[in-house]
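Collaborator request, handled under Task 6.
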Amino acid sequence: MTSPTSLTQDFLSQQLEKLDGRSYSAYKGLKGNYAFADFTLTLAHIQGDPFAAPSRVSIFVSHRHSQWPQDYWHTPTRRIVLADFLHRQIIHTIPQVEQNRGSGKSGRLIMASTSQVILARTAVQVTLAGIELRLGVGLPAFGRRIAGQAARQLLTEDLPQLVTTTLHYQPAWQSAVEQHMATVEDANALRAQLSEHNLVAFIANGSRLPRRSGVDSQPLPTAVPFNAPSSLEVTLRAPHAGPITGLGIPTGVTLIVGGGYHGKSTVLKAIAHGTYNHIPGDGREQVVADGATVKIRAEDGRSVTGVDISPFIDRLPQGLSTQAFCTTNASGSTSQAANILEAIEAGAKVLLIDEDTAATNLMIRDRNMQALIAKAKEPITPFIDKVRQLYSDHGISTVLVMGGSGDYFEVADQVIALDNYLAHDVTAQAQAIAAQNPSERQGEGGQHFGTITQRRIQLPPFDTGRKPAKVKTQRLTTLTLGSEDIDLRGIEQLIEQNQVRAIAHAILTWQQQNRTHSLKNLLDDIMTWVEKQDFDALTPYPMADLSEFRRHELAAIINRLRSLRVISER
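Structure tokens returned to the collaborator:
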């Protein structure tokens, strides 16, 4: 190989022709940077054989060469949105370029997937300097012999074509790009207005909330457009769309009621995902929620380490304390209590609970059960007796789907009924029913909610011997860190598998410090890098398959580590 200054497109083309027919390992000598006419190609990692994970490749195009007007990338938000738009264009274009070029993964172009939300991702990044594309490339071979001619065509002809058609400014895309940006800037503006209107969430009239299925997050074509009851209508202003009217869910305690299959859970899920910005056409573009909104559920079997769940569960048999509760196999009630306290510890300001996935014995104890089992014999204080204290003592609001217990009418600030996906304000009716037919149950929650404990933790070692810990993700269900499997099914606001991968690498990076942290400070430290979009600071090498994540999902995964150590509480 010659000096780095001579590594050009022509030089790469010549080298690939010379390598034709040689052992696949000879590709390793190509690692480096190559100057093309309008971009720089970096071969960062060369795969060991054609059946291994594709080679890691990056492409950098300066703004001078891409010709994207500065208006599209002059703010951090617009850089994220432009990157997201380009990412989707590349995924759409790759099938037109990609072709089978030999054995194994020869000729494959691998891009990280996207979703219905707009996130900062490492696959495509727009900076003040230019645009970087990261992808996997299957270097061609026949058997384990280099297919030099196919590789030359792939790297020096097809990749430049991909760059020209997807990373360079295309006037035909102007309307679509501007719509992408307007959608996000409007959503951000709506979300920013929630606090000044004392709202925790907003659902614009005309939104389409139902999805095609539980595994397909695209909008249901036959969905009934959402329409807010006039008594709860709020008008907010967006910089592009102007005045937008819809349902404003106030702070405090809100019940969503209605018959089965009439849309209660669909509305709650839309609110849960309103912490993210959605792509144009999703149907939830103007559904926004407070950024510190957390979905809570019961989660039988999860691990809990050192959590003070005494506001909900205390005085266990045999005098066991719950002020630093630990278990490797939590019940429904203890897991839900832990999920609530952990979410608050991580900074949650809004809790979302659906009775379908909640522990009944943590949610309610009616008067008949109170008469049969005295409070002195019952260690659980039900959520109904704590939900108002959460708001009065700590300013934490709750939105609760409830179709089975009218006792909650007595503690609700507003009650919204869903009838065939149409929303109605039934607060006055619910309050009248509660007044005429009081539950007559005895309050069991005391005068105050109780202490919110901040823990000091130490992340466990994940390395096995001399080898660094491996990260393996299985959809949004399981994360494997080293030898530890973490069940993710109870973390409902994870959107992309690449969020999980990014969280895993962040945990591994901070674990190497081998010191104790308060959980809050640990979350703050990691999120500082995420907010700066400096994902490379979280990983051992630049990766193409990481997505932006929230502090709440980061905390949830840390809290589910069975090997987590709690050093102290305060």
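The cover message to the collaborator said: "Residues 1-5 have pLDDT under 50 and may be disordered. The longest strand covers residues 242-250. Please let us know whether this matches your experimental observations."
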